[in-house]
Amino acid sequence: MSEVHRLHRLMAEDPAWRLLRSDTVYFAAALLPQHLSAQEPRLRTEVLFELLDADLAAMREEGFEVTGDAAGYCNLWRGNGILARRVIPDSREETYELTPAALSAFAFIAGLEDTRVSINQSRLATIQQRIRQVVRDTDPDVMNRMRALQRERARIDQQIQRLGRGEMPPVDDRHAADDVRDVLSLVEALPRDFTRVRTQLEEINRNLREKLIDSSGQRGTVLADVFRGVDHLAESDAGRSFEGFYGLIMDPELGAEFEDNIEVLAHRPFARTLPASDLRFLEDLMGLMQDRSAEVESVMTNLTRSLRRFVQTDEFRTDRVLGHEIRAANASALELFRHVQPYQDTGFDFELSAIDISSLGAWQLYDPGDARIDSQIVDAPEPEAVDWAELLRRSRETDIDYEELRRSVADAFAAADPAGRAAGISVGQVLAHRPATQGVASIIGLLSLAGDPGPDTGEETVSWRTIAGTRRSARIPLTRFTRPPAGSRGFQPRKDI
């Protein structure tokens, strides 16, 4: 690869570079690996938000400048290619997990913090053994490979003889610990590799769909392969590498042997010099690899089935027609661009539709604890006896006593002569028979009971006394009662003047 080509690749803005030079790299490196680890590679959106919000609150208390919440930071990191958000199959729930770029960046940061020396005898022996094995297995001469295996057998026989004579003591604790650390350095990349393989399979699936929709010559080849049952995902480099690993890791005999060996190592004296987290990681390693392998295998199987359904249903035909229309529209736009500039007014107005799309993870969940009352419930004192006269007085201060007004109108009708009753009783006549006990509220109540003034025109003067005893008067429309009001409507809210 030339320097120029490499420079272009480095300038292609890989998400790992964006994370390492972003302002939030310290938050991401401190928080995300703690919650999205090899043992727990993904979390439901609401769970991750809750954990991160608690961490951000603790950082604020320590004086760090935190400008957002967990949802905001996760949306930022997802847009930068650091977090991947996926929907759980057969569910509407969403999960977050680290992308391969994030895992690479965090591995680099962890290397900066790691002070262990990697130059040791164990690592050199491992390198020599691997080179010796590659040289032997790639030799096309059968006799050379046979002689190499015979030398290896002679070396093993010599070690057996020395062991029988008691000349080979066990490896000391320091070298044993170095060997285990070398193993850990090899397996630390496995979670990142699983994520990278899954991402590559999803990318291959997208490319295959694009080729199917595209009208180029490759489309016919891919379509024929899918109908013949060719699994392009399994035949890819990532698929072949994973299938070999998957067949080996799911071997029950290998899994049982690995777990037995780890259990034996955990009880050896040198294991006390290793961090407890490293031992737990080794104990869980086989189960972790089997779970992640089964997950990637399920993803590859589902993608293959989805691809076959895509080409065997109307979805493929619909997308192909849509792709053709989009390409035709682009071609027309390019042709039109030669005659009409983008900023030129065409004289046409288009109504653009838009929809507000938000993530389920951004929803605020209901917390029953918010409605919980922490204060102690105390017994109320024994209520006093109700004074009905006082209760009536207070109610008359806030409400219009329509029952009293109806009785006043009825009494005015009873006291009037037949001619007066036939002509109707005005509000002023009612007040002349019985004064307004509630002041202006009584005037408003009588006008409300009388309703529409009717065909009569004119005014009349009414008077009342305020609570302070001051005499007041006003001119109101001449309003008459043609009959006594029937029924009782009880107390009603006072109306403003």
Helix fraction?
A: 55-70%
Number of strands: 9
Q: Average pLDDT, to the nearest integer? A: 76
Give the helices and strands as they follow along the chain.
HHHEHHEEHHHHHHHHHHHHEHHEHHEEEE
SS-based structural class? Answer: mainly alpha
Task: Catalogue the unreliable spans.
Answer: 488-497
Name the shape in a single word: elongated
Which strand-content bin applies to the residues? 5-15%
Largest sheet: 3 strands, antiparallel
Structure description:
A hairpin with a 6-residue loop joins strand 2 (83-87) and strand 3. The chain has helices at residues 3-10, 15-20, 25-35, 45-61, 70-79, 100-113, 121-137, 142-164, 173-187, 190-213, 217-228, 232-235, 237-249, 252-266, 276-312, 314-337, 388-398, 402-415, 418-423, 427-433, 440-450; strands at residues 42-44, 83-87, 94-98, 399-400, 425-426, 459-465, 471-477, 480-481, 492-493. Helices cover 60% and strands 7% of the residues. The radius of gyration is 44 Å and the shape is elongated. The longest helix has 37 residues, at 276-312. Mean pLDDT is 76; it is low at 488-497. The strands form four sheets. The protein has a three-stranded antiparallel sheet. The chain has 21 helices and nine strands. By secondary structure, it is mainly alpha-helical. The N and C termini lie far apart (91 Å).
Features:
497 residues; 21 helices; 3-stranded antiparallel beta sheet; elongated; disordered C terminus; two-stranded antiparallel ribbon
